[in-house]
Amino acid sequence: MNKDEQDIEAEIKGKGLTAKRITPDDLDAEIVDEDFHVFPRTQLTICALTLKNGFTVTGESACASPENFNAELGRKIAHANAREKLWPLLGFRLRDQLAGG
């Protein structure tokens, strides 16, 4: 969970909003594996997150200046971008559950 997510979680809890919802912990609990790839001769990093049900989401990171490429930072950004895609997916699943579908 990043700092922004921590702040939002604290605000939600502080306002007493207790209805069923998706939390950052829910996102993290869905992820069972992660793989990274940097394409040869590029600064493009791809992260593939595998979820509990076998579905895969991807995120990417690229820098414009090759001199700024840092593999660890590229993985961090690509992972964050892939993880961000889980919000709408889990939100859709929750909405189906709430609607009785």
Mind sketching the topology for me?
Layout lengths: L2 H12 L9 H7 E8 L5 E8 L4 E7 L8 H14 L1 H13 L3
Antiparallel strand pairs: 1-2, 2-3
What does this structure look like?
A hairpin with a 5-residue loop joins strand 1 (31-38) and strand 2 (44-51). This protein is of the alpha+beta class. The protein has one domain (23-98): 2-Layer Sandwich (Double Stranded RNA Binding Domain). It has a three-stranded antiparallel beta sheet. Helices cover 46% and strands 23% of the residues. The longest helix has 14 residues, at 71-84.
Jot down its keywords:
101 residues, alpha+beta, Double Stranded RNA Binding Domain, 23% strand, globular
- The CATH architecture assignment turns out to be 2-Layer Sandwich
Low-confidence stretches: none
Order of helices and strands: HHEEEHH
- Cα-to-Cα separation, first versus last residue: 30 Å
Strand segment tally: 3
The major β-sheet equals: 3 strands, antiparallel
Count the helices. How many? 4
**Which structural class fits the helix and strand makeup?**
alpha+beta
* Strand order in the sheet with the most strands: 1-2-3
Report the portion of residues in β strands: 15-25%
CATH topology, anyone? Answer: Double Stranded RNA Binding Domain
Task: Summarize the model shown.
The protein is an alpha+beta fold and 101 residues long.
